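A further point concerns the way the authors explain their paired sequence and structure data. For illustration, here is how one protein appears when written out as sequence plus structure tokens:
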Amino acid sequence: MKTIAILFSLFLCQIAFAQNENGNITVSVENLSSEEGKVYFALFNEDNFLKKAPIQGEVSEIKEGVAQITFSEVPTGTYAITAYHDKNGNQQMDFESNGIPKENYGVSNNQMNLYGPPLWEDAKFEFDGSEKALQLQF
């Protein structure tokens, strides 16, 4: 009887650990128009989406028209990713005087808001803690 109880306890522990796994999210942008500058990527949850510093931020060089990064050790949850091509190397997204971005950008799910900044509801996705690959379009 003790053997069954121990095995059952081990099984429950495995389920608990499996539900709390962290994984990696690899994000790429292909066919960039220029290899000037770098591409900045940001991983957000709903609470900090475009309002506060991201959960994780990564920067990629551009090689053969492709920028790619990996967000590591991401817990399960709901997230959104943004990225922009910082062509001039000033480490910030530049805007026209009317608020329109001067630099190319994209968001997860490739849903762009034509009337303002990206929306959480359009960009969010579920992450189950396993490996995930996303491709953003600028």
Q: What stands out?
A: Residues 2-19 form the longest helix (18 residues).
